[in-house]
Amino acid sequence: MSRPVLLVCVLLVLIITSQFEWRQQLVSDVDAIATPRESQKQQRIQQREENIKEKIILSQEKNIQSLNDLVRSLKEQLRQCRGNNETSSGTFSS
Hints:
Blueprint: H1 3-93
């Protein structure tokens, strides 16, 4: 082989191998960039889930409070009815 042909072959080999290295670096760089994006996306999703859970809990607490108020009101009505019954049954027995 002549020297110029050998030099061209060596240059081609160098160019090809350097391109493979660049591609590997680019792929690793893209992976490094994608990983934080994915973790940020996961964090946003988890935050949304936590917000939804918190809203559900607050809604349930409001419902429980409303039910407690209704129970309190019904107990008071029951006491009044019992009081009225005792009063009316006391007047009948006299």
